[in-house]
């Protein structure tokens, strides 16, 4: 009797329609700052890096990209406010498109997560507040005392995001992701731990979210909701930016996102991974927002193959973004498909300026075979 081949369905490897875009699987490249864009200009080695991680119908989110000269807080991050930067992104986006990938540009402003050395004319970084972040002995980062933005300056910053989005589309990106996470400028306004303003951008929840909402509105008006994703991390306390009622904050923001019909996606970061009886444990606290949001939902933070398959199968999320595992495994979707082993990542090369080491030199599965002396035995 002929036996039917039973093919295991791998939830992460099933197709998904995101708006007008046909994705062939659910494994997303998370936005990852790599600090290799000399002089804020994306470099040819980024074309190698991103195209290594591109697959037909796979979604890639770019590293956080500065919207203006005051947006920078880390060395050699790419920008998208000058024509030179737009031109430099084009071949990188082309390289991803040639492999059939979908490529979204994450646009950011770090706000007070910066120091005078990164700022034009050595000025103070700008923020919602003039409260300074304490130095971080672990990373060696020192943050300067920020300058509180005057109310009348805020429309100019909103416009920087609008122009960055326009430029990203001109560079060929399929969309933009507004970086509303991890303690950067949008969150400095949103969270009650960092917003101590008394104008219409401070105080009530609605006022604190006003700046983020205006940025998202402006970007949507400029390039269309179908090209705009938003990243949020309500539970994060990174760089001393925390909210006392994160569930309420996130609920409010998701309702604001729902006002834009056909928004590309909502991307949320899980709370920090806990250790329960010696095992990694993802808290899975995003469910209320996944339920409340009317479109595609992306979850990120601590996922591996098993957890990713589980949350897609359960309907907890539509897509899963992978950060560190995608740094060290350029062919991560293929490895997940095959259930292959994974390369370990090397933290020490996450954020360096080397154009190759820790960037484009992680091996593909085929490389393992090339070096495997038993393969032709
Ligand atoms: C080296 C590095 C750079 C990162 N850069 C960004 C970034 O530019 N924008 C962002 O939203 N998140 C950034 N993140 C957070 C990741 O997108 C992701 O949420 C995080 O790594 C958790 O996912 P993982 O457990 O799959 O790595 C970065 C993380 C790492 C390790």
TrEMBL record:
Keywords associated with the record: Fatty acid biosynthesis, Fatty acid metabolism, Flavoprotein, FMN, Lipid biosynthesis, Lipid metabolism, NADP, Oxidoreductase, Oxylipin biosynthesis
GO process terms (BP): jasmonic acid biosynthetic process; oxylipin biosynthetic process
Gene Ontology terms, MF aspect: oxidoreductase activity
Transmembrane segments: none
Record keyword Kinase present: no
Co-factor requirement: FMN
Family recorded in the similarity comment: Belongs to the NADH:flavin oxidoreductase/NADH oxidase family.
Name listed for the protein in its UniProt record: NADH:flavin oxidoreductase/NADH oxidase N-terminal domain-containing protein
Organism of origin: Urochloa decumbens
Taxonomy of the source species: Eukaryota, Viridiplantae, Streptophyta, Embryophyta, Tracheophyta
